[in-house]
Each structure stands twice: as C-alpha cells, then as structure tokens.
Design brief:
Helix content: 10-25%
Strand content: 25-35%
Number of helices: 5
Shape: globular
Distance between the termini: 13 Å
Oligomer: single chain
Length: 209
C-alpha cells in the first residue's frame, strides 16, 4: 500500500463568490505518484478541530506546501492566513513528536524556520530560474531551481536547529535540514518543473522511505 502523505493547502479568497478556499496544485498528485506516494490534502482548520483530525488520521509524512505570505511577515497582506499559520505550527509540532518526516516547500520552508525561531527578510524576486551553490553533500540537489518566493532566509537568520545545505547567488538559504530530525526545507517548487526533475523526486523518496 502506498504511503499516505499529508499536504497542506494555500488559502485563496475568491472575490466573485465571496469565499475563502483551500487550494492545492494538482501537479502535486502527479509528482508524488511517480514515487508511489498518496497525497492527503489537509484542510486549514482551527486548532481544536485540527487536533481532533490528527487523532483520526495516520500520516507517513508531511508536506508543507507553498503559497500565502506568513501573517507575521505582513499582517495586513491580502494573501495571508493566520488560520493556516496556526494550523501548520500545530502540524509541525505533531509531526516532530510522532517522528513523522517533514518537507517544507517555499513558504513551507519559511514557516519551519519561524517555528524554530528563525527570521525572514523581504527580497526582490525576479521569478527566474537560478543556479544554487551546494554547501555540503548531505542532500543531492539539482544545480538549477525555479524561484517563486518574496521572502528569504539569510544564513544568519536561520534557526539554530537547522543546517543550510545550499544557498543562492546572494547567499540566501535555498535548502536546509534539521540537525537530528527527518526534516528538509526547499525554497523552490519541485512540483512546478516539467518534465519532473528526478533529483527532486529522489529527495522526497529518500525522506519518506
């Protein structure tokens, strides 16, 4: 049976319907299917309801997906969701306590850093592909990655429990690992590469094995 991987969703406000919606790129299903993983989209819930949900399901892994600016970075921003932030903090806590592997993608990497008391800084992002510099061999990483983020992590702002494994040309952290937990952060979006990059696939395969 395929492993069940919980994956968080962005919150989008649909003006024409006056609705807040949980959204997930269907590319994630195609990406995870390549390595026999089954995604379980997680609804953004208040803490009490989220706690009940986590008692009902058994995840083999957790993906903190992209989208939405963290509330702490821009409380009045149009794309923020404090509900999502609080929910993901709970998920990280739950996963760490239950030895569930975690991978954070873009915003997911950012919220992991915040969870461990790291900091973020606003950056100017041209949303182009760029070369990354590997700092060690702990992760096998692609040489070139995409870029869709407006907040970055300087090495000096990385939480003390996390170790940088790659940086960009401006020395912002592009990938990190936890020093003693099965936890990885990637600042790019592996699900948005077409064709799918096998190096990215192997990062997930190894983490969730």
């Amino acid at each position: 049976m395929n492993k069940l991987i919980g994956i968080t969703q962005r919150v989008d406000f649909i003006k024409s319907y006056n609705e807040n919606r949980d959204c997930l790129d269907i590319s994630w299903y195609k990406f995870l299917k390549k390595i026999n993983l089954t995604p379980l989209p997680l609804p953004n819930l208040p803490i009490n309801d989220a706690t009940k949900l986590l008692k009902m399901i058994k995840m083999d892994g957790l993906i903190l997906s992209g989208g939405n600016t963290l509330h702490s970075c821009n409380p009045k921003g149009k794309d923020v969701s404090k509900l999502r932030d609080d929910f993901e903090f709970l998920l990280i806590d739950h996963a760490l306590k239950n030895n569930i592997p975690i991978i954070g993608i873009c915003r997911g990497m950012q919220i992991i850093n915040k969870y461990f008391n790291g900091r973020l800084v606003k950056i100017d992002n041209d949303k182009s592909k760029h070369i990354i510099k590997k700092l060690d061999k702990k992760l096998n990483l692609p040489r070139q990655v995409n870029s869709f983020h407006n907040w970055g992590i300087r090495i000096s702002d990385l939480a003390s429990q996390l170790s940088p494994t790659a940086v960009d040309e401006k020395n912002f952290v592009e990938a990190f690992i936890h020093q003693n937990k099965k936890l990885v952060g990637l600042m790019w979006h592996p699900e948005r590469d077409f064709p799918i990059n096998k190096i990215n696939l192997n990062i997930f395969k190894k983490l969730f094995s």
